[in-house]
Each structure stands twice: as C-alpha cells, then as structure tokens.
Amino acid sequence: MNSTAVSYKGVPMLPELAELLKTWRTETPYPMDDDWVFASPFTEGKRPYWADSALADHIKPAAVKGGHQR
User: pTM of the entire structure?
Assistant: First the structure.
C-alpha cells in the first residue's frame, strides 16, 4: 500500500469530542500523557483495548441501550 501526502494530513476534531476526551481523562485510571486513551485494564494500561473487544464489550451495548438496533 502506498501512502500519499494526503494520507499524512491531519483530521479535524470536533470540540465536543475533545471535551468528552478531557472528561474521560479525569475518570480513567490511566490519565498520564503517555498512557493510552482507552487503555486495557487487562494489561494494566500497557496496551489499548483491541478495537473488536471495545466494539463488542462497550460500543455495541451502549448503542443498544441508546435505542439503536443491531
């Protein structure tokens, strides 16, 4: 796979997402600058959650609770 100059460009973040992440940082047990944003407690914060695990264990249940099907 070839990368291009466009693939290195930044993606803007919504201010609402930035605020949510700042709030999360005050609640997570791994709040240091060099910690993962969604650190896995199973690795004592040394690794992030696997994307599939986070989706199955947290995101999908939250979506269903919020009224979304699937």
Answer: 0.55
